[in-house]
## 1
Amino acid sequence: MLTRVLQLLADGVLLGLVYAVVGLGLSLLLGIMGIINVAHSAFIMLGAFFTLGMLEYFHVDPILSFALAIPVFFAVGAIVFRVIVVRMERAEQNQGLVAMFGLMVLIENVGTIFWTTNTRVVTVGYTNIRLHIADLTVPAVRVIAGALAVALITAFWVFLNRTLTGRAIRAMAQNQDAAIAMGINVTRLSLMMFGLGIASAGAAGVVIAMVFPFAPQTQIEWLSWAFLIVILGGFGRVENTLAAGLLTGLIQTMATALMPFDYVYLLLYVALATVLVLRREGLRGAVRRTI
Amino acid sequence: MIVSAELRIEDVIAGYVPGHPILRGVNIIAKPGRVTVVLGPNGAGKSTMLRTVAGYLTAESGRISLGETEITRLPGFRHIEHGIAFLPQGRSTFPDLTVGENVELGGWSLRGDKSRLRQAMDKIFGRYPTLVPLRDRPAGSLSGGQQRTVEIARLLMADPSVLLIDEPSVGLAPNIARQIYRELEAFRDEGRTVLLVDQDVRAAIRIADYVYVLNSGNNDIEGDRSAFEGDLGTMVRRWLGV
């Protein structure tokens, strides 16, 4: 019995780490920049296909792709910021939302043209290895994915809380006028933060590709996961996103063990509704400004 | 002693919507080691003037200069490099950051030189010892007066020669407001240029060396403190149109 509970906890934590990394970029861009980036999951999808492409054409291991995805998607984010986000600067909030929605549709459709709607999996040497720790059995690939997620989440936490630049980014979110008066170049740091948000989506895509099958159109399902995490954990704080991811992973794993699979999402969305009723702030609290 | 230069605002026309200027040709000179006060009724353009000088708003025409350097089109975030610090109206701490982190960000322009940044921090916490025990508290959890002290401490981190201050006493208890004005006098005595915009006419005139009055975006009257000390009532009544 104890072994079974520990096994469920281990599975739940490993799944939860994947959820947390999927929600990370959405939470940060919403909380820090006030941008509801509905194209977040489209970049996750691009990250997944990046992993597949690097493996198929260049025989690059997903672990290395994870490290490569960060600068590559940072650059993509910087371009999106320059081309789309700066133009939304003075627009109404919902125009930004529509712009990002348009970008999501564009990416998904271009993805479908290139990669069709076939479901893909990334298979590497360690994909089917199972690790035995005491009485527990866990897939090696989940442990690796979980470790990468922890590394990314920790790096973001350290950057935002322990570096002067990270604190300047948080300061800019809290009082832009005062931040400018300190000499903070708000446009440059906004570009950096947006780039990091997209970089985290790309890296999350690598993590997803390691553990789940994917196709261009599955991105919309990841978007709902990401929103679930963000609403459960609130936005802008790395540690809350991690907690919400872990909670979701654990609830889902426990529920899957105890009830028919059809009810699992029902349970998660009841949790979501409860949080919304209790906190009452929903997404509204974040929509206080556009960058 | 701080070596500061004269801040000159010449024939500045500026506003938020092109073609609808709020400032219609304002002229102000703020001298080093002086408190220059700008007064005027609501909507006279006092805050707009300060935001234009601070680079938050670009003048449509006219010239703003600090000594020999023209700063008319200098973006807001580059003013601190020229020794110009700005305290915006209302509360402006970073509420989720600690007092220490708030003050440290005041030294953002010194970030390339860690030891200088640390020295500046030590000097500022030495100057405002009441902040030392609050150092690890989030700034948003402090009282209004304490937050104002954090803002002023943060403002001084880069050791500015020019201070642009927008209504420093709004919402503060009278005894705290008095401390803030004493602090502004201390800045003057250190040789800094202080340009103060205020609604609290009496308190501002008490520390002023020179006073400008703006009305509808134009210069109205100006003069030494002595010229204003006598009959404030008449001036304020005239603003109110009674």
## 2
Amino acid sequence: MQPDRWQQIDQLFHLALAQEPNRRVTFLEEKCAGDKTLRSEVEALLASHEQAESFIEAPASDLAAELFGKEQTTLRVDQHVGSYRILSLLGAGGMGEVYLAHDTNLRRKVALKLLPPQFTINPDRVHRFEQEALAVSALNHPNIVTIHEIGRDNGSQFIVTEFVEGETLRARLLQSPISLLTALDIGIQVAGALAAAHASGVVHRDIKPDNIMLRTDGYVKVLDFGLAKLIETASIASGPDQSTLAKVHSHFGLVLGTAAYMSPEQARGLPVDARTDIFSLAVVLYEMITSHQPFNGATVSDIVAAILKQEPAPLKRDSLEVPRELEWIIRKGLAKDREERYQTVKELLIDLRRLKQELELQSKFEGFAAGPQNLTPTTTRDQLIKGFDTATLNAPSTTETILTGSKQQGRKVAIGLITIMAAVAVIALFSVIGFNFGRKQAPAISYPIPRQVTFRRGTISSARFAPDGGRLIYSAAFDGKLPEVFTSGLESPESRSLKAQLGGRIAGVQSVSRVGEMALLLDCELNWGECVNGILARVPLDGGTPHELAEHVYSADWSPDGKELAIIRVVEGVFQLEYPINKVLYKASGFIDHLRVSPKGDRVAFIDHPILDDPSGSIVVVDLSGNQKILSAGWQTAKGLAWSPKGDEVWFSAGKQRTIALHAVSTSGQYRLLYEAPGDVRLFDISSNGQVLVSRGQPRSRMMGSAIVSKPEQDLSWFDWSTSAALSDDGKSLLFYEWGVATGGVPRVYLRKLDGPTDPVMLGQGKAMGLSPDGNWALAVQEGPPSQLVLLPTGAGQQAGEPRPFPRGDIKEYHYASWFPDGQQILFTGLTDPSRGLRSYIQDLSGGEPRPITEEGNIALLVSPDGKHFLGFTAGAHTSGKYYVCSIDGKKATPIAGLALGDTPIQWSADSRALYVREDEDFSSGIYRVDLSSGDRKLLKEIVPDPVGLIGIEVKPGGIQITPDGRSYVYTYWTFTPDLFVLDGLK
Amino acid sequence: MTPSPRDVSQLLIEWTKGSLAARDELLPLVYEELRRLAHRHMRRERHGHTLQTSALVHEAFIRLVDQKNVEWESRSHFFAIASEMMRRILVDYARRRGNLKRGGDTQQVPLENTLIVSEERSAEVIALDEALRELSSFDPRKGQIVELRFFGGLSIEETADVLGISPGTVMRDWTLAKAWLRKQITGNNSKID
């Protein structure tokens, strides 16, 4: 383009834009004065402008994140995943990458699908998906792809299925039109697969050409049963409006193609049933026959609208009418009201088969009539019939089709099916009777009898039965001492410490072999009372010195014969399971613990926690060749595991809410609840005669403080999980919240007056954040989503009554909040969108929208008493982040001199010249005053909580509080003092 | 292997001095870092600590570059480099994606339409890159504005600040550049929006 020409276009374009839209044509006509090229150029640009509104407006990084986010940890050729060797990439998409792989055990080709992590972070959902997928695969139906394994490797969930040589129906549709008979045959085979799956209670939910594989020999295989469950989101279920749905779909990149096969009930976000699959299959049939989809649209919303409202165009094929019966079948499948649709896929199947036979017969006659020159249809049909026969069990043979009339044939099939259905009904009836009969015979439910065996106060890190079953060996930190190993009889509370034998080292018992040898972890770290990361040593139970075997061990168990050990240890930062030692069976993405070898010694069960520092996880078994199986997933907390004496079940202690109970899962994945009691019940061991060793206790979060100057520290706790949030500047009021068992997991805010004997007053729901300088208001965040920042009146001033929410603006999540010293403004940190960074805002008490004060990724935490500065924090990408002091306008940030690594600033000094910081040790913390100008640091107070049952100190802001004058303080810490019990009669 | 910040800084300096070899060496490093960030981003979501998606490239950059060792001539220089880097990465990605589809003797079984969508997007990225190159040939300023706005993620004001022109001018140029690019790329059915 010539620069002067472009300049001309530029000018005209903007001048025209400035005109009223209806004036533009005339305007350009005048200005271009006969220069037609110029005029059409500018007109084209104006037209393009009209549609360019959102074009490249979203920054490319969003696109990059989307593309790279979708990109999985791509596997390399020859890489091993479990026992599979990757051969090549078969395909990739929103639901993962599919590889051709070699099964090194069974020496066969398999397809290995790697699921993207965003679909597998919810273990509950993964578990449900696995159950469905495996249930359908177990049907062994010729039209359902067989799943060989669902496993996890290196943190990624993968599915291994039979390798289907062929192409997807989608690929086939892109090539050339599909013949009527082929289309019917494919429809019949898919319906056959669905009928079998529906009979076992599984709905596919995502029938579309991409999920239908056409094998070269004519078999049709339906893929991905249950997979749709993984990607469903709560918003689909709750948001009936189209925009929500469109958002959900585009969020996962499941766009136009997928939407076109949705049933109206799916589009509305209603619960789906088998009839949804019927609708989707009818869409696929329609598309196979007409080569276009019944419901079209340029956007997801348009398609959804068409599905909900439009009647599809009459079926035409190369502008010819299709058989009326077919039109009728497909219309019945596409009925918007599911009550008017086929009610079962079997009915659809019968109609499709009947039609196909009629058409075959017709074409046979036509073929004969037309003579030998018309061979092609016959050839096609033969291929079709081949596929048809193998796929449909009740189909008559080809000869029969030719010999009998089509009408009769249809009836015959129908009668055959009625017979089968009657047989099914009879069997069902028998099984109901059989079930009831069995129930009557069953013994009455037995109640396990708990017997308390320890009575001293402290944490118990582990416990085992001695091989004779008459003695216990356990490690416990009683009375505030370091953990020791004890032995005791089952009938007596008296115990003997092995401290001297172990040279006074911290020790946790891991396992006792059948020949009476202990496996211990020495010099271990304590993690919530458990002994981890120690030196593995074997020690005879009846005396002798430890013989050290390995370092950095987290868990260990003897083989049944007592000759080998299975261990979990960390090597180069990765948790690995070895059995025997040095033979690696499993490497974890997060961390693993609580391993136990099965009674036969052929398997090892353990708990897999996919995220480091997060107690959530699954119960997994691995065999001696490293093949893994997830037995039970979706636990928020999982601690403790043992094999049932017969080795057919793994028992474990885990919880989905606040408390932990006992559960059992069979090696085939059958789950049942075993035992619940108030508090946490943790499993340690099961003896060979079925006695179960557990601990029971209530973990607590407690508050202590010396709030009123010169008074000694006092217990300020209220219910079971008190967390301090703020202390008034005069040290007379403590704001805290409860969020344990007592409040049912919904946090509640309380105010405790410390200068009188009164009980705490409940102010409302939420997690407390700060107390207003005048003491009249508490600032709290109520959990969402979206979370809400509210003011709760304390009742101290004139205000009373309802919580006062703040205008949210774009904010979806609130994280930290505190008051400005003048009490007129609030400083808080929020998130507008999960894809963006945290940033801080100022909120005027008088109202109005919040105003950002920091850039995204930077957080303002506390305003200095003089109102001139705030304490800021920059989230570090790979470091723990950095604190700094910033002028209140956000313009000048200064690093804090004298701040040591691991220091956490918690408060300004009253003169705004220094910060109080906490420096945390394992079981104590120091509060220091750090002078901002000189960097001098001075220890003000050592926080040393009661060591009995102590498992940690609260690290959240507010966990340790000090007043600006440095004289009053309060802190929150966690304790757990369970007792050991033996449960008799638990089955 | 994680590259040391020093290497990256050195490569960047060489690139700014015009070494294309340095740029080509740099790309895969930043690209890998982006992938790692995007991956980690997913894992973090569960904890509620989310990474700033729109700052992905800048973060990847900052993580790789020891800024003390690079004497950035100015803020604008940094953004210009970051924007160009993003453009390179995306185009490189799109090309590789295209090759993956065409190349090799592996059988393609696209299981989802998303694959097709990704490929469409990849094709659009390449088309945009080509159109942008053409635009820059006769109107370098508009080209730069698009690079900063779209690839660099800068706002109108920030772009104006970096280029030392008024926001009004940026807005005006941006409007026409968008219309022209859109017309150039697809005629009518682009999805980069």
